[in-house]
Write a structure and sequence with these properties.
206 residues; two-stranded antiparallel ribbon; single chain; 51% helix; globular; 4-stranded mixed sheet; 9 helices; 2 domains; Beta Polymerase, domain 2; alpha+beta
Length: 206
């Protein structure tokens, strides 16, 4: 898909542009955030795309070129700065020049056992046109990431997303997996709190 040169691009087609760039550069990825919730819970509007990627240093130039061809200017030196920095969990930001939509590309870093596990457990899901089959967080890992960001920001959207996943999948989730990783990530108390709130929200939907 060529890069649109006006502001008519809708968000789903923007997501497809980003994924086309990653696939053309042969970058392993998974979709997180609100777009991943589309696979497992409620669909809600968003203007941001969150991804986890495994970016070898030798693929930086290829990815920069593929993004540029689709209307997102991310020079290789910017990518390298993020890739090689040790300060926090910085993302590579790819902003579409004509629509303003943004993709945040979070990197798999050495020693990040949880993000490596999430990439290992990613699932291929058909989200329909224009996205088709895409790699997304497993529902369990998506809950954990939402839990992690809720602990940082306290934004209620994360609890609503978790509640929608719990409501949609009910008994299909591996709750022991979630509890084990929540404990390892220091989020066990937060997980119990969020489950209580999610149960309350779910009961209001029935």
């Amino acid at each position: 898909m060529p890069a649109p040169t006006d502001d008519s691009l809708d968000f789903a087609n923007f997501v497809r542009l980003v994924l086309d760039a990653l696939e053309a550069a042969q970058i392993k990825y998974l979709i997180g955030g609100a777009v991943a919730v589309w696979a497992w819970g409620d669909v809600r509007t968003t203007r941001d795309l969150d991804l986890v990627i495994e970016l070898p240093i030798e693929s930086v130039a290829d990815l920069s070129r593929e993004l540029e061809q689709r209307g997102m200017l991310v020079p290789p030196d910017i990518m390298l700065d993020v890739l090689l920095t040790t300060r926090g969990d910085l993302a590579i930001n790819a902003i579409h020049m004509y629509s303003g939509y943004k993709a945040e590309l979070f990197l798999l870093r050495p020693g990040d056992a949880y993000r490596a596990q999430a990439l290992k457990c990613r699932l291929l899901v058909d989200l329909g046109p224009p996205l088709g089959e895409v790699w997304v967080h497993s529902p369990e890992d998506l809950i954990l990431y939402k839990l992690r960001y809720f602990s940082i920001s306290r934004q209620p959207k994360h609890v609503r997303d978790i509640a929608s996943i719990l409501f949609t999948l009910e008994q299909e989730l591996e709750m022991d997996y979630i509890a084990s990783w929540a404990e390892r990530l220091g989020l066990a108390d937060m997980w119990r709190e969020v489950q209580e709130e999610a149960r309350r929200q779910s009961s209001n939907r029935k």
